[in-house]
Amino acid sequence: MQNNKTTFAAIIAVLLTIGSLWLTNQAVTPKQATWDDVLVEGKNGGYQIITTDELAKRYQQDAGSLLLVDTRQEWEYRTGHLKGAGNFSMEPTAWARWRKAAALENFLGPDKDRALVFY
Amino acid sequence: MAVKLGYKNVYRDPYGYPEWQARGLPVASAPAGLAQASEEAKAPGPLYGWAMIWTLLGIFAGGMALNLTPCVYPLIPITVSYFGGQVSKGGEGRGRLVVHGLCYMLGLALTNSALGVAASLTGGLMGAMLQNPIVLVVVAAVLVLFATSLFGLWDMRLPSGLTQAAAKSYTGYFGSLFMGLTLGVVAAPCIGPFVLGLLTWVASMGSPWLGFIIFFTLSLGLGLPLFFLAIFSGQLEKLPRSGGWMIWVRKLMGWVLVGMAAHFIRPILPGHGGTILLAVVALAAGVHLGWIDKSQANFRVFPLLKGIAGVAGLVLATFLVASWAMRGEGVAWQPYDEKILQEAKTLEKPVIIDFYATWCTPCRELEEVTFHNAAVVKEAGSDFVMVKVDVTKGGNPLYERLLQQYGVKGVPTIVFLDASGKERPDLRLVDYLPPDKFLQHMAGIKDVPIKN
Question: ipTM of this complex > 0.90?
Fold first, then answer.
């Protein structure tokens, strides 16, 4: 009786392990987002989309008014980044959002009206 | 996310850096801050007086910190079962137990430091002696031997010849010392990482005795918690027996030892044999502890504990096999060839040369974690020429020459050549490095053409 219960639990646990491993190790091929996708995403997230041209114009006018945030990994930032940008590595996961919220607020500073550009 | 924090003017530039750079807008790059990576410590000069004492104290503390690493785990069950079972038979006071503990610790430290000094003095590639296949096999054999004792196949006792050799009244103490001397071999992998570091130091002082003192202090620090564990378990045994569950716990510890043994010989098994062996051990342990073993106990959580142990064993086995089976592509290595280096030069591609041996644990780790990381594989495939030099077996004249040419002292050594074929010594690696740090090194070597 006891053994049967344990066996049952073991089978469930083994299946769960395989399942979660499969989920986490799956090769993700991110689909190429179209410009429209990006716009929709921005609308949902409550932020605006800026093109390279537009950003370049504002950057050349007054670079100081912009806070450029490089969200890529540190090694990517090191190889090259927009001049004047700071590096704040973000992974596109809920876990990273939750974990880094406080640090991000600290990073962005107290001025809530300043123009922030993430890339 | 910044929106949620209350920022109002939030923009996103979906084209990001590549587009910006392509238009020739201002960019900057931070040459990798690799100060922490070239960690080769300067060899301090000879020490006298107080400086010596402070240094030794520091080393002692370092030894105690070593107890946080997994290499000491196998010592714990052995210590508990030996002192629990053996010493208390004399049934005397606490003082006796303390002396036993001291003897044990002394024996451990002696063997351990002798091995350390031997490894240091042989120098060069032999500095990795503690990862040598023979040492690994001996360690694994000792572990399995003790495991069989825990399974109840034989009683842990001194060989009778040795018992008679010692004077009657000291037999017990001698036994503890002997135990420590034997187990020093098991603890040896703990000081492995220190060997390369202390190697240069000991060599610069030119005194094996000073080297011995250093390793001895380190081993004493390592042994101190075990000393307390020994005393503790000696007293634990005086409690009234609580039934069959003790036997089960001993079996559990036995399986832990078998697992450690499998872990130790893993590097010398070809291919994925090590992973499969570990999985088999985990499976066997789970089935044995959870189902086959019939020990009973007079408290109710015991069947639950057994169930948990059994399920944990099975899950571990599944995890090992499944994560191995689902692992992605690795870096595509090429064997060393002058032509490949020439080709890389004409293509202006940087080259990464990995000197490795199959028995070296950090090499395996590099291969299994770093060189299977998706970002590393991608970078390596597009912008690098990856070359592997297998120095497991000596005697290949070409490889011997390469070891000379690049001044390789041990494995792993990873040499970074820039696009013009010159080595960047500041980027050289002599240990395991996680993928993100490794990517910084890769970025560091790519820096050069950007700056031009």
Answer: no
